[in-house]
């Protein structure tokens, strides 16, 4: 009986022959570890890049977005639990090898490919091969992830990734354990590694009533981002909606979202957003130099833009991101 | 339907199923199972 240990994520699942990892998509078969979902997409859609959310990369463009079954976290509030908390046998899959993903992205006029919906960490080999091919063909690669990954595989992937939205769920191990059966430190390390390796990083924090919505929680997150990632790192506060195992909670009140948005701006973060609430002023990008609205949005829709090649057309401030 | 016609129909159906399965397998080639990166076995060999 040959046992293998998966070194992809901090769980380090130790698997006897025939066993699967916690993610449900990696298995020990005859003493070797296999991904069960290479090229087996359970979701493939053309989305606005704003849906990821990534606001500072090619605004208004489309992103060919794929996922497979499985996840290495088990969030009580998961919006996509029907695919993330299922093995591949229980999701409707299509054969979509890397070359087909790139071909489809081109066919549908997408400038980027997003690895999203579940967590691309668990379909690592598929993400790596597809992103390498996509980059060769001039497409951008967007990682939408919880960042629960070991350093070595992350460093091997980063050269092909243009941008990432990392879901920073909270600022304590206790929160991560109770909400997601994970831990905080590997996520923080992943964010820093991505930044160091030149990936454009945006951070999302879902504000869950009674779980992570106190001033102490919010300030800890804001201050860590400011200190370690820089004040020009985009931060998206997102509105929670009752789902999966947390249907007992109300949606995040608008006042809470607005309060977090104002708090982050007052603390000096330059690009703070309020998401899952169309029409909120936090949908827009403001110039940190003169305060003018640079990109006016409603939800995922771009209403107007005052950016000229990445600079404010009023005061000339340079806005971090990839704009063409 | 004569016995001969019945056998002919049956064989045609089986051939169709065989062809469909063959085409499906061709389409699936290269997807699904893939040896993972980043693992190690108890004998110390890295994957």
SSE blueprint and pairings:
The complex is a heterodimer of chains A (324) and B (47).
Chain A: E1 4-6, E2 14-15, E3 26-29, E4 32-38, E5 40-41, E6 43-48, E7 62-67, H1 81-84, E8 94-95, H2 98-107, E9 112-115, H3 124-136, E10 140-145, H4 151-157, E11 163-167, H5 173-180, H6 185-196, E12 200-207, H7 215-228, E13 235-239, H8 254-266, E14 272-275, E15 285-286, E16 293-298, E17 301-305, E18 307-308, E19 311-312
Helix pairs in contact in A: 2-3
Chain B: H1 3-28, E1 32-35, E2 39-41
Question: What brief labels describe this structure?
Answer:
heterodimer, A: alpha/beta, TIM Barrel, 8 helices, 19 strands, globular, B: 47 residues, 1 helix, 2 strands
Account of the protein in words:
- The complex is a heterodimer of chains A (324) and B (47).
- Chain A has 8 helices and 19 strands.
- With 324 residues, chain A is α/β, with parallel strands linked by helices.
- Chain A has a single domain, classed as Aldolase class I (TIM Barrel, Alpha-Beta Barrel).
- Chain A is globular and about 65 Å long.
- The model of chain A has no long low-confidence stretch (mean pLDDT 97).
- With 47 residues, chain B is α+β, with helices and mostly antiparallel strands.
- Chain B has one domain.
- Helix content of chain B is 55%, strand content 15%.
- The relative contact order of chain B is 0.09.
- The chains are: A alpha/beta (324), B alpha+beta (47).
- The interface between A and B is medium-sized, with 30 and 17 residues.
CATH architecture of chain A: Alpha-Beta Barrel
- Helix/strand-derived category of chain A reads alpha/beta
Shape of chain A: globular
Structural class of chain B: alpha+beta
Largest sheet: number of strands, sense, barrel closure of chain B: none
Shape of chain B: rod-shaped
Domains of chain A, number: 1
Q: Compute the average pLDDT of chain A.
A: 97
Mean pLDDT over the residues of chain B: 74
User: Strand share of the residues of chain B?
Assistant: 5-15%
Q: Please tell me the total number of domains of chain B.
A: 1
CATH level 3 topology of chain A? TIM Barrel
Radius of gyration of chain A: 19 Å
Q: What ranges of chain A have pLDDT less than 50 throughout 5 or more consecutive residues?
A: none
Q: What count of helical segments of chain A does DSSP give?
A: 8
Specify the biggest β-sheet of chain A. Answer: 8 strands, mixed
H and E string of chain A: EEEEEEEHEHEHEHEHHEHEHEEEEEE
Distance N terminus to C terminus of chain A? 54 Å
Low-confidence stretches of chain B: none
What is the count of β-strands of chain A? 19
Query: Quick one: CATH class of chain A?
Result: Alpha Beta
